[in-house]
Design a protein that fits this description.
- GO terms for molecular function: 4-hydroxy-tetrahydrodipicolinate synthase activity.
- This is Dihydrodipicolinate synthase.
- Its EC number is 4.3.3.7.
- Belongs to the DapA family.
- By secondary structure, this protein is of the alpha/beta class.
- The chain has two domains: 1-96, 3-Layer(aba) Sandwich (Rossmann fold); 120-183, no CATH class.
- The chain contains nine helices and four strands.
- Helix 3 (36-42) runs parallel beside helix 4, helix 6 runs antiparallel to helix 7 and helix 8 crosses helix 9 (168-182).
- It starts with a helix and ends with a helix.
Length: 183
């Protein structure tokens, strides 16, 4: 879609809703990228209150933060688990983390330490989360790997919607990752 079409699309949705709307930039799954300037234009709508950026790059996240920094009441939320700490440093109000399903305390530590003023501790917590993310996502792509890790941790969350078959070796790799990072 062209940026003008995205503006028209999100404006129509925001006009029709009685609840606040967050934009969601996840081009890998939608095939569309919301440009920072598009988010800035949409941020002027009284019912559009923020954006979650899951493009996966620091440049994308920073672009949104820079574009809307002067707009009160419009939040930028970080999506990539690898950028949580840096997102807070640069001004993100929150993150929505897929990995928090497996490691809620570890993800929360990044936020808690950052807001307590322990920037070095927050960065260390981020490094640990990044290690977990890197190792887990080497086994399988994120939704399936997260669900399988949750199952191996004793949580019944159902199977991945994608037809992913884990070998015994992959299951052991995930068990080892859980033991290394979450024990």
């Amino acid at each position: 879609m062209k940026q003008e079409e995205l503006i028209n699309h999100y404006t129509a949705i925001a006009d029709a809703l009685s609840v606040p709307l967050f934009l969601y930039n996840i081009p890998a799954h939608t095939g569309n990228t919301i440009a920072p300037e598009t988010a800035r234009q949409l941020a002027r709508h009284e019912n559009i209150v923020g954006i979650k950026d899951s493009a996966g790059s620091y440049d994308s996240l920073k672009g949104f933060l820079d574009a809307v920094r002067d707009i009160d009441g419009f939040d930028v939320l970080n999506g990539p688990d690898s950028l949580i700490h840096q997102g807070y440093v640069d001004g993100c109000s929150a993150c929505i983390s897929g990995l928090a399903n497996v490691a809620p305390a570890e993800i929360n530590a990044i936020w808690s330490l950052f807001h307590a003023g322990d920037i070095a501790g927050s960065r260390q917590a981020q490094e640990r989360v990044t290690g977990l993310r890197t190792d887990l996502y080497k086994v399988a792509f994120s939704p399936a790997a997260v669900k399988k890790a949750l199952q191996l941790m004793g949580h019944e969350v159902g199977d991945s919607r994608y037809a992913v078959q884990f070998s015994d070796q992959q299951l052991q790799q995930i068990r080892d990752i859980i033991a290394r990072y979450l024990a």
